[in-house]
Amino acid sequence: MKKNKLGILSLLILAITFSMIGLVNATEMTGITLNRPVTNGEYTGTITFSATVTPASSAVKNVTFYYSTNGITWTYIRSNSTADATQEVHTLSVNTGVNFTDGASYTINATAWNRTGGGHVQTTATGVEMDNTNPTASLKLDKSFVSKGSPIFADCSGSSDSVDTALTYFFTLTKSDSSIITNELANSSSKTYTFSGVDTSPVGPGYSINCRVTDNVGKISSATNLTFDVRSTGDGGVIEPTEPIKKAEEQKKSNTLLYLLLLIIIIVIIVIVFATQPGSKKRRR
């Protein structure tokens, strides 16, 4: 009987010991790595925040993400509340267009919280920027028509926001009947291009040049197409203003004439007023 009691007691001690070992293993989190976003990364749209907890432990309650612009005050983003407690990689879908300002530099914090006891491990990524603003693009040509065999020069002006450090340009030459489609200068940092391919083009109107501007995160804007003619003889003409520019110039001329007319009217009124004032004329004797 005494041996049975000792056997039972031994089994209880072993069971408690293994349970404690399991509990220690379950609560031990040695580190966490932020997979995305990364330091100095640029992002747009909805992205997946990801963190790896080591080792994979059933003690992980969740991984919570925060952001800060000064590294002192932290704003809660969301917790990975649906995380499998035993998984190693914890993810969370985040819309970068909400609660984030384009061009601001953020520090992102990922904290893995212990299921028991409130312990945690954390890591950060600095210099993270969000870009949800498209660049802009405008196009100019140096001619309104070009002789067959002569080049035409395209200048694409692109503007970016505070996030973008570089823009890339993509030029396209097309004909309205689609007989010629030429893509030039793909993914180039140069904003100008000279099309020499018009020397093999059929004579006639309907040629069009377009440029597209792409920013760091792949957001694209296209400039308004500009058209030109290919002629058999004669030098290419100087580029004529596009319709919006023509309207602006006409409006400017109209405004100038209006100002001159108003000035004349004011001068006439002043002359009349002074002429009709008492004593402005000599009294007849």
What does it look like?
The protein is an alpha+beta fold and 285 residues long. The chain folds into two domains: 28-130, Immunoglobulin-like; 136-240, Immunoglobulin-like, CATH 2.60.40. The protein is built from two helices and 18 strands. It has helices at 2-27, 243-275; strands at 31-36, 42-43, 46-54, 60-68, 75-79, 89-95, 106-114, 120-130, 136-141, 143-147, 152-159, 168-175, 181-188, 192-195, 204-214, 220-222, 226-231, 237-238. The strands form four sheets. Strands 10, 12, 13, 15, 16, 17 and 18 form a seven-stranded mixed beta sheet that branches. 21% of the residues are buried. Residues 13-27 and 238-242 have low confidence and may be disordered.
Task: Supply database-style keywords.
285 residues; alpha+beta; Immunoglobulin-like; 2 domains; 7-stranded mixed β-sheet; 5-stranded mixed β-sheet; flat
